[in-house]
């Protein structure tokens, strides 16, 4: 069994993990998310269907946040297993905070990389910057991390203590 850390140290580690995961999530969001295009020839009109472009961009960020939340939840579950569930509340709070920081860093990184300016393409078509239309997708990381932790805690067996591994077939 690993000695438990101070709760502030545990939470700080999850914050650093969340910030570290937020950067690649933001980069991948900018790289994979589609841009919404509008035309300005006879008044502004959307080139594609209006909600589809924004929805796909939001869902792309949501899927990336879902993956990051699962990663944070797996880290928390492994750490809970090693500590024997001692100080479990700090791991849960840390995972929630880490996933929230991951969402914030991903959003800011995406906006920084994609820019906030409307780009003009050929034939009067304008490309809108990447944005988050539905802020709820940012919570998918928190929910997926909590789901992994709850599922692990629900189906976990007793913690394995170092030196206590005995074979089921060995005699006392």
Task: Tell me what the structure shows.
It is elongated and about 75 Å long. 60% of the residues lie in helices and 6% in strands. The protein has 172 residues and is mainly alpha-helical. Mean pLDDT is 85; it is low at 167-172. It has one domain (20-154). A 4-stranded antiparallel β-sheet has the order 2-1-4-3, with no helix packed on it. It has helices spanning 7-32, 50-83, 88-114, 140-155, and strands spanning 37-39, 45-46, 119-120, 125-127.
Lay out the secondary structure.
Layout: H1 7-32, E1 37-39, E2 45-46, H2 50-83, H3 88-114, E3 119-120, E4 125-127, H4 140-155
Antiparallel strand pairs: 1-2, 1-4, 3-4
Helix pairs in contact: 1-2, 1-3, 2-3, 2-4, 3-4
Give a brief rundown of this model.
The protein is mostly helical and 172 residues long.
Order of secondary-structure elements: HEEHHEEH
Largest sheet: 4 strands, antiparallel
As a percent range, the share of strand residues is: 5-15%
End-to-end C-alpha gap? 23 Å
How much helix, percentage-wise, in residues?
A: 55-70%
Q: Which structural class do the helices and strands define?
A: mainly alpha
Characteristic key phrases:
single chain; disordered C terminus; 172 residues; 4 helices; four-stranded antiparallel β-sheet
């Amino acid at each position: 069994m690993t000695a438990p850390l101070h709760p502030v140290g545990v939470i700080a580690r999850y914050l650093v993990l969340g910030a570290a995961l937020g950067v690649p999530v933001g980069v991948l969001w900018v790289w994979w998310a589609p841009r919404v295009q509008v035309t300005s020839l006879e008044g502004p009109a959307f080139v594609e269907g209006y909600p589809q472009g924004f929805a796909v961009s939001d869902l792309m960020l949501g899927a990336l946040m879902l993956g990051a939340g699962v990663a944070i939840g797996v880290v928390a579950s492994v750490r809970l297993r090693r500590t024997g569930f001692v100080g479990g509340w700090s791991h849960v709070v840390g995972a929630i905070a880490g996933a929230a920081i991951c969402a914030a860093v991903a959003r800011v990184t995406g906006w920084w990389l994609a820019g906030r300016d409307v780009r003009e393409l050929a034939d009067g078509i304008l490309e809108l910057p990447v944005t988050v239309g539905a802020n709820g997708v940012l919570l998918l990381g928190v929910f997926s991390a909590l789901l992994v932790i709850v599922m692990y805690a629900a189906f976990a067996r007793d913690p394995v203590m170092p030196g206590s591994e005995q074979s089921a077939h060995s005699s006392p």
